[in-house]
Amino acid sequence: MKNQSKSIAFRLTTFIIGVILLQALLMAGSLMGGGVLKQAKENAFKSLSSVVSSRRNFLELEMRNRWTNIDTFAVQISELVGDLSPEDTLNFDMSSLSDDLIAMLRTSKATGAYVILTGTGEHGQPALYFRDYDPVMTSYSNNDLYMIMGSSEVARDLKIPLDQSWRFMFEPDLTKHEFYFKPYNNSSLSNNTSLLGYWSKPFKLFENDMEIMTYSMPLLNSDNEPIGIVGIELTLNYLTQFLPATDLQAKDSLGYMIVRKDQEIGALMPVFSGGALQKRLIDVSKPLELLSVAESYNVSKVSNVVTDEKVFASIDRLNLYAYNTPFENETWYLIGLMRESDLFSYVNRIQNILWLSLGLAVVVGIIGGIFFSYRFSKPIISLSKEVAAAPANLKIKMTETGILEVDDLARAMEKANNNMIDSASRLSRVIDMFEVPIGAFEMKPDSDLVYVTPLLSSLLEIEQTLDGYIGKKEFLEHLSTVMAEFETEDSGTYRINPGKDKWVKIRTTRTDASIIGVVMDVTEDVLEKNQIKKDRDLDPLTKLLNRKAFQIRYEKWFGTRKPDTVAALLMFDLDHLKRVNDTYGHKWGDGYILKAVDLIKSLGNAENVVVGRRSGDEFVVLMRNYKEKTAIVNALEGLFESMKLSTLIYEDGTNIQISMSCGICYLDQTDLSYEDYLQHADDALYKAKHNGKGGWSQAQI
Fold it and tell me: Cross-referenced NCBIfam families, in alphabetical order (predicted)?
């Protein structure tokens, strides 16, 4: 028993089991106190908040650029009714407004557009109201429209059918038609009607009509007297398309909800619900009760759910109104909803895998430790007996270690000591056994020759002489040349020849007797890293610099820019990409993008122009090294002239002109950051699109 306790098998088994148990305890402790699962939950909240924020940004973009962007049409309609007084509206020919109203409907991509005048007759107020149940599919004629309100004669002349809920005039109701009364009653606050636009809660125009939301603005005559309203409608069915539940989860998603803060009771009232599954879990007829659980990500738990399952909500404010306008206190929010089991599915999976891995590691580790220790000790015992039987030329005495098997091996090493081979030969044999591109060399201070293994000569591309030896002077000169071409991102890696794709890694160690070096061919690793860097920095479709790579290129240039040159930062936005994608598919949308990229590249050569892609339809351009601003303007004007002749013919024969808008900001102030210049260029781009697509505007700093 005493000898067995000294056995390497016994001690190794005890050590491995102890290490496995200690590792299990440390892993359990890290899970309990290290915050791994807590961080995973934080990531889940962050991911939910990010998705909802992105959807809110998209919805606000649609509101600003489409649904509420009706000022131009409102002005045109105001001019047509400019000489009317409130008393004369009953006799006004509403058909004169039809063209502008239909154009407003088409441009805004809303489901309806209307004009309602103030005069009250026997059957109500004069109105003209058109509806398009599918705004995405636009007809060149008006056969896809329906008349909701207005004269049947106007409908007949325009060949527009009457809707099943058609009314000749508008019959106002104070209890449900706030879309009319609120903007009309506030018309005296400003002559700028765009500041008085009002978003209504969902309601039905008529008893059997579908639910809609509206955006209305006052209509003023030439004396700035209110004579009605003009606006657009969105059916809730159509609004659902802009709030896809699959954003949050591919299957069985609770989707989105829009809520409005009720000023009287100070509670959040649902105004839009995203589907039957959501309505089964949450009573949308009552105020939404939220309990904050992750304030930094605006994530709360919904308290008033009708099931035992927890539901979490990420809430993000919709900026519908500008400050200091009549309705700025009417606050709307977009809410994304997820069940706890779905939100933390990844967290729960990690937790289960970790605990399972922990249990398996303990069991497998103990069994493997026992098996390995005995299998490891057995060959040592056999080897020691073989070496012990070998003849010995010189006897030496080694101190016992107290471990039975190692002592046997020590006695065998005593007998085999004089049979050890020369260190250099042993090094070469070991390397040859691995059959990998590795070479080695040994350099001694008192020798003019350097020993090298056979493969090292081909690795360093140096001629080997004298049967494995090279002159020390020649070797050191060649090694200095090789090590001059080093890789900055990988210490110890060098390029053999600037004209070749061949790299090696060199490691050396110094002993009292010599310097030993190892050289390994790492060409494949370096090429793979270079390809990864290339894939990281380039946009897959256009092969342009992506957002981060462009900023790095810009900041590197900006730090070394020439003071006597002119430069500018340009933002481009493709005008019709969404329509192309929606109509013809993303394959043709990609073609549209590539055609536009070719135009942008025509601004100049690589010496003067750097182009990057920021998002799907946004591109950023750095124009540099110009002597004067007129050269940049001429290049930009040339691009827009070329754009007028650049078209794309689709498979149905449609010929669509490539169109883009641009904002330009000159880089003539050294105290502004890249983000500052980018914001100025983006502001100019927004101004260009507001003035009419297909043009450019200069930022005023």
Answer: GGDEF
* Residues 254, 283 share a domain: yes
User: In this predicted model, what pLDDT tens digit does every residue of 603-638 receive, in sequence order?
Assistant: 999 889 999 999 889 999 999 999 999 999 999 999
pLDDT in tens, 545-596: 999 999 999 999 988 888 889 999 999 999 988 888 988 888 889 999 999 9
* Residues 76 and 219 grouped into a single domain: yes
Domain tally for the chain?
5
Q: Are residues 571 and 603 in the same domain?
A: yes
Which residues make Cβ contacts (< 8 Å) with residue 620, sequence separation at least 6? 550, 569, 570, 571, 572, 611, 612, 613, 614, 678, 681
Whole-number Å distance between alpha carbons of 673 and 272: 41
d(CA 278, CA 271): 13
CATH number at residue 614: 3.30.70.270
| pTM of the model as a whole | 0.51
Could you give the CA distance from residue 216 to residue 72 in angstroms, rounded to a whole number?
14
**Residues 513 and 434 reside in one and the same domain:** yes
Whether 267 and 279 map to the same domain: the answer is yes
* End position of a domain, from candidates 237, 255, 279: 237
**Could you list the residue range(s) of the whole structural domain that residue 658 is in?**
538-698
Q: Given pLDDT bands bounded at 50, 70 and 90, which one contains residue 420?
A: very low
- Which of 109-113, 246-250, 375-379, 391-395 shows the lowest mean pLDDT across its residues? 391-395
Which pLDDT tens digit goes with each residue over 359-369?
887 788 778 77
Nearest to 177 by CA among 198, 148, 193, 152: 198
Q: Which two tokens stand for residue 338?
A: 């997820």
458 shares its domain with 517: yes
Kindly list the strands in the beta sheet with 212-220, ordered across the sheet, starting from the edge strand earlier in the chain.
Answer: 162-167, 146-149, 127-131, 112-117, 226-235, 212-220, 198-199
SS3 287: coil
Looking at the DSSP assignment, which residues form a beta bridge with residue 516?
442, 509
